[in-house]
Inverse folding.
């Protein structure tokens, strides 16, 4: 992993801007991202590059919006594989993404508790 999955500076800036809606954003992320990862893995297993592209793109956007810039970069790499019309190498990146997602989710779960 070349960079931390969560950019704490970006997250802190976003947290200050979105203070009132942050708990809802975090809840949505925590619910949405594991489902998206499962769908991504299925699309990779089915060798469906169009679906890989679309799911990775959505995951990239969600990650960027909450400061998970390292994770977004991994999503972008998977997105580019799908855009190129194949799924070769996407499985390895998806495994990396799963590790990154677990780390980010743990942080967001703790954040959500502290905001309650």
């Amino acid at each position: 992993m070349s960079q931390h999955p969560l950019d704490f500076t970006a997250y802190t800036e976003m947290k200050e801007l979105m203070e009132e809606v942050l708990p809802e954003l975090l809840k949505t992320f925590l619910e949405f991202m594991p489902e998206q990862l499962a769908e991504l893995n299925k699309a990779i297993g089915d060798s469906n590059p169009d679906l890989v592209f679309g799911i990775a793109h959505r995951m990239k956007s969600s990650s960027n919006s909450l400061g998970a810039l390292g994770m977004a970069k991994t999503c972008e790499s998977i997105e580019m594989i799908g855009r190129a019309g194949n799924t070769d190498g996407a499985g390895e990146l998806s495994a990396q993404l799963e590790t990154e997602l677990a780390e980010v989710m743990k942080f967001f779960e703790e954040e959500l508790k502290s905001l309650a």
In short: The domain at 8-115 is CATH 1.20.120.160 (Four Helix Bundle (Hemerythrin (Met), subunit A)). The helical segments are 8-17, 22-45, 49-65, 69-83, 90-115. The mean pLDDT is 95. The CA atoms of residues 78 and 90 lie 6 Å apart.
